[in-house]
Amino acid sequence: MAGDTSPVRERLETERTRLLDEIAAVEIEPPEPMTYGSQAAAASQVFDQNRARALRERAERELAQVDAALARLEAGTYGLCPSCGRPIDPERLEALPWALYDLECQRKAR
Ligand SMILES: [Zn+2]
User: Fold this and answer.
1) Ligand 1 centroid to 109 CA: how many Å?
2) pLDDT by residue (tens digit) across 38-83?
3) What's the CA gap between 2 and 50, in Å, rounded?
4) Which of 19, 28, 40, 109 has its CA 20 to 30 A from that of 98?
């Protein structure tokens, strides 16, 4: 990517820190099978745990994407779609700095 990449790097680093905080903030408690007061409490705890796990998994996935984008920035391949080799629309990168594929390849991947 031509030009100054430091604003992008800064955004990615900020996002990375935010995601690490988010992951650290999600506490997944080990299950305590016999200590539930009631079926409802048990169900609610399972629900909370599942929600916490889902939140954390999403944050970890995003973190992996941010890390990959930082690696591409280092390698000088940032902003190029690894599938078709075309530059990714700058507006797309503005909205989603860790986007890996251009819109067309992203659509095909789904
Ligand atoms: Zn592509």
Assistant:
1) 10
2) 888 888 888 888 999 999 999 999 999 999 999 999 999 999 999 9
3) 43
4) 28
pTM assigned to the model:
0.78
Q: Which residues surround ligand 1, an ion (CB under 5 A)?
A: 81, 83-84, 102, 105
Tell how far the Cα of 101 is from the centroid of ligand 1, in angstroms. 5
Q: Of 88, 95, 98, which is closest to residue 15 (Cα–Cα)?
A: 98
pLDDT band at 27, cuts 50/70/90? confident
Residue 96, C-beta contacts closer than 8 angstroms, at least 6 positions apart: none
| Distance of alpha carbon 9 from alpha carbon 56, whole angstroms | 23
